[in-house]
Amino acid sequence: MAIFFIYLASVVAVLIASMVVGTGEGHTDYFRADEAWLYIVILTVGYMISRGLAKSGSRDPYDESH
Question: pTM here?
Fold first, then answer.
């Protein structure tokens, strides 16, 4: 469950960073929204892979003899 909260915190951090970076007078936006969503997709895929690997090692293999 802690991994999920770390994932959510990372997503929120990316969204906040994309909102804050480049704001203000005379600044250009170096971290655009499309890049932020790309990083969120990468985080999501990484999270799904890590959960899949954790689940794959947690069960006994299926055997019809039992």
Answer: 0.72
